[in-house]
Specification:
Largest sheet: 5 strands, parallel
Number of helices: 8
Structural class: alpha/beta
Order of helices and strands: EHEHHEHEHHHEH
Distance between the termini: 11 Å
Shape: globular
Number of strands: 5
Radius of gyration: 15 Å
Strand order of the largest sheet: 2-3-1-4-5
């Protein structure tokens, strides 16, 4: 594993998993949210985001945490390993609620309130976004693809590594 992407529904624990993986395999970790968002909850220009991502993709090794559908195919093309945290919506909703009010290393602000639209996005993720991810995984089946369906599976993977 030299070029790894960690994908999954918001709240699945991508950042936490990727931080643990970083400490085990000693490869630089990059969070798409940090490339995309400003501290005031505005976004950078798309060209700035794409430039930041392109700079990371040219490096010899990396872990990239985040979904961002618009760049997922590009990242899958460049990676050697895809780790998909494929959890039920309830687990992801619980993850989002648990991080509210906490400082995060993967986001430039502290989330203090529940965002109803974001929570609906999570509730609908498996119906609306997951099929696109599965199709991309099929397209890139030559990659090392690891799919976890529970936090326990992901934790066991990290312990065994």
């Amino acid at each position: 594993m030299q070029k790894v992407i960690i994908i999954g529904c918001p709240g699945s624990g991508k950042s936490t998993f990727s931080k643990s993986l970083e400490s085990i395999i000693n490869i630089p970790l990059y969070h798409l949210d940090m490339m995309f968002w400003n501290e005031d909850k505005t976004t950078v220009e798309k060209s700035v985001f794409l430039k930041r991502l392109s700079e990371v993709l040219t490096k010899d090794s990396w872990i990239i945490d985040g979904n961002f559908s618009s760049t997922m195919e590009q990242r899958m093309n460049e990676c050697d390993t895809v780790i998909f945290l494929d959890y039920p919506p309830d687990i992801c909703l619980e993850g989002v609620r648990a991080r509210r009010g906490k400082v995060r290393f993967d986001m430039p602000w502290i989330e203090t309130e529940e965002d109803a639209e974001f929570m609906d996005y999570i509730r609908n993720f498996n119906e609306q976004r997951r099929p696109q991810i599965i199709a991309l995984l099929e397209k890139f089946k030559d990659k090392n693809i690891v799919i976890f369906t529970s936090r326990a599976e992901a934790d066991e993977f990290l312990k065994a590594y």
